[in-house]
Design brief:
Helices cover about 0% and strands about 45% of the residues. The protein is mostly beta strands. The protein folds into two domains: about 110 residues, Immunoglobulin-like (Sandwich); about 230 residues, Jelly Rolls. The two termini are about 45 Å apart.
Length: about 375
Amino acid sequence: MALLAALAFVPRGSAAGTSPRPVILSFTVAGPRPLPAAGAPVTVTVRVAYARTCTFLRQHSAFSSLYPLETVPCSSGRASVVVPAIPNTYNTPLRLTYAVRAAGAGTVQRSVRVPQQASTPPPTLAPTPPAVNPSPPTFKTSTNWAGYVVPSSSDLVTVADGNWRVPTLDCSTVTDGGASAWVGIGGYPWPTGGKSGALLQTGVTTDCVGGMQENRGWWELYPSVPNYAAHFSGFTVSAGDAIEASVYQTSTGGWETRVDDLTTGISGVMITGEGWGVFADNSDGRFPLQGRTTNMTYAGGYTAEWIVEAYTQDEAQVTLADFGTIAFTNLRTSLASWTLTADDGIAMRSKTGSGIVATPSLPQGDGFSVSYTG
């Protein structure tokens, strides 16, 4: 019996002045009822345009995540991979979902559907052991960060941008705690031999205070002397609001942070060497300064970050609030060629090191999610 891979896709274009975003192609191989106990390999081929590498991933119907199989060159416009056999001794349909992450792809031309190779019976009558669940990816860990950090090998990152929604905290689980979602640039040693260590970031903090949720927009340069950090006054944020945050270098060489509440149309902006404030998006963009950054400078960084953090306040790290799941989408950087990989992911371990309290998903198109695991 033959298996065919049916391909469904949504092409992603690229904004003016930016590199094309990765394209995710998802398709399913559904088996007969049941598959032969010995299984059989399947050859999967796709055609793409303007891609350099293609990473094939697979998801078993019993599991929730896609796991990488192999990364192959596809600059020729075609990529193939032989998917290993999966023994199936259960009298149930086996449904396998595959995806291809085409780095730098602009459009998808078409897919090539290849039938399953002929299966062979087991060499002996001994029962085939049940399929083993694939191990989840092993992320790097941190005591206060969960998310993704994308490094640059040579060029300064001059733009980092992303979207998410303000979570509704479960303040019955953690009555007094906090979680901060943000976008940033820097904070890691320079690959050129220098070491800035400075992280410029902006986002929204959500707190449980006495069992009630409070939300604040903010920006920070860390570390810095004096410490440059502030919450925006008059920046009302509610659970469920759509947020876009960005850190970028201006045409004059200065740096700005901007956090936009797309639901209310209010933005909080910081400009190095000038100050920070809040304005309505339907205004002319001018705003009264809530504070000044006259002597503040920033040298840039070689990483872009999208993070959920158990932040530090008054020299003590807050208890991580139960934020459920936060999905970061529409990620953007200034890098000419980049894509998220599992190697860029960071899971948050408890302060005592006894377990993981927040973990990212595998990359999902041009985004990912972070989930509270307690």
